[in-house]
Amino acid sequence: MPDNPAPLVLVEADGPVLTVTINRPEKRNATNAEVICRLYDAWVRLDQDDALRVAILTGRGPTFCAGMDLAEIGRLRTGVRDNEWISRLQDEPGLSLAAYLKTYRPTKPIILAAEGVARAGGTEILQGTDIRVAGESAVFGVTEVQRGLFPMAGSAVRLRRQMGYAVAAEMLLTGEDIPARRAVELGLINHVVPDGEALTKAREIAARIAANGPLAVRAILATLRETECLPEADAFGIEERYGHEVMRSKDAIEGPTAFFERRTPNFIGE
């Protein structure tokens, strides 16, 4: 083995776009303690770095993510502390659910680019992303029930809200996969592209988002999330609060000015 093996999550910034790649292809990108910790750290970086405006989550190789490594679950239950990542999870018990985007969602959008299999945690983390692209051979499934487990990263609540009760119930209770074409029909994902092109499509979407006013993007995203399942009258109050903040900003002056001057706007996030 190399002296300095590559991290199990690769995090690369290209201008305003942060690409987060699960890098465990020999294990079908199944998550372990290191993957979980590094995913969480990537989401915190996305939030805290003002130069970043959007992230892409993907997996290296032909599989997006086969879920949690079952061997790692056993190690965590024993309470062993044989590496720094296991120790960190033991010391920060809420970190796993934050990494899976259940209890922590960055204030900037995340685009999923999935090829191949996305099962268990691979489909659970999908539900915490905002825009989703899949290769045409991709399949999605919440398979925990087949192992006598519970999908702890939010699927028992989120899935029915994102694709309808009956379909969600069947997926959750049988643990069976649905193909990408079916997933896009149900609204679980946005785009199906030829195999191998999910990341390319995700980058195109990321570039379009990054070119927009960052205050407006974050305010719209916050409104979408905070108004879910609220009565319309209550939701409008949240919408107006975020909307007025944006409309009073310097960016709200720059955008129309650039349009009339026929130039690209220079948004500064203020």
Automatic annotation (TrEMBL):
CDD domains the record matches: crotonase-like (cd06558)
InterPro entries named among the record's database cross-references: ClpP/crotonase-like_dom_sf (IPR029045), Enoyl-CoA_hydra/iso (IPR001753), Enoyl-CoA_hydra_C (IPR014748)
SUPFAM superfamilies xrefs: ClpP/crotonase
Pfam families attached to this UniProt entry: ECH_1 (PF00378)
Superkingdom field: Bacteria
Family that this chain belongs to: Belongs to the enoyl-CoA hydratase/isomerase family.
Full protein name: Crotonase/enoyl-CoA hydratase family protein
Organism, scientific name: Cryptosporangium minutisporangium
Lineage of producing organism: Bacteria, Bacillati, Actinomycetota, Actinomycetes, Cryptosporangiales
